[in-house]
Amino acid sequence: MRVLLVTGNQSKAAEVRDVLRPYGVSVEKADLRKFEVQGEIEEVSMLAARMAAMEALEPVVVDDSGLYVEALKGFPGPYSSYAYSTIGNEGLLSLLRHEENRRATFRCAVSYVDPINGVEMTFLGEVAGYIRHEPGKSGGFGFDPIFSPFGPDGVPFSEMSIEEKNAISHRGKAFRKLGEYLAGRP
Ligand code: ITT
User: Which entry of 100, 104, 125, 180 is 20 to 30 Å from 19 by CA?
Assistant: First the structure.
């Protein structure tokens, strides 16, 4: 089957294609607006998916993700997009300059809306890790160079292949749940 992914982010679309391929789900990047209201990521993704589904009149998927930094009481969280486009990775690193607690979690909310069958579902995924003191090599997108998931080797997301990142990431976990749901449908 095919789903429309509402996103302006090509790298995100590439990751989602890689996760959903084994479930026989093809992903088309939709040329639809992602309406982003203020709220928790699962509210943002669901409202955006409903709006897009009304326009597309076919099943759509919206991923809203955020980086939650423990020492900043969860900031930027649902405001990650704004934080990234304003202060960026350098700004986040400088906010944490004197901070020993580097713990952070990436969270992903994936909302699927099928307007024909009246289905609305949200799937969540998260990965715990830490904000690095120095960015890793460039690669990936967004906060990937400054985030390393907990693990023996400390490699940042930006230095992983799409497959390596998807195996452990917030997005990989959430979209595998969607893939299992879609594969199990009649
Ligand atoms: P769309 O809203 O068009 O899908 P976006 O990149 O803005 O694309 P989000 O709103 O979900 O996606 O992401 C909020 C911010 O968090 C944004 O700046 C992303 O770059 C960043 N982000 C999300 N997932 C990420 C990931 O897997 N790795 C690094 N940064 C990520």
Answer: 104
* Closest C-alpha to ligand 1, atom 21: 142
List pLDDT tens digits, range 51-99: 999 999 999 999 999 999 999 999 999 999 999 999 999 999 999 999 9
Q: Give the predicted TM-score (pTM) of the model.
A: 0.97
Distance from the alpha carbon of residue 61 to the mean position of ligand 1, in angstroms: 15
Where do the domains of the chain lie?
2-183
Q: What is the pLDDT of residues 114-149, one digit of tens each?
A: 999 999 999 999 999 999 999 999 999 999 999 999
Q: What CATH number does the domain located at 2-183 have?
A: 3.90.950.10
Residues 178/132, Cβ–Cβ less than 8 Å? no
- Provide mean pLDDT across the span 175-181: 98
Residue located nearest, by CA, to atom 19 of ligand 1: 142
Taking alpha carbons only, the member of 107, 153, 164, 106 closest to residue 131 is 106
- Phi/psi of residue 60, nearest 5 degrees: -125, 155
Residue given tokens 């759509």 in the structure block: 60
Q: With a 6 A CB cut-off, is 34 part of the ligand 1 pocket?
A: yes
- 160-164, long-range: CB within 8 Å, 24+ apart, which pairs? 162/14, 162/15, 162/18, 163/18
Active site residues: 64
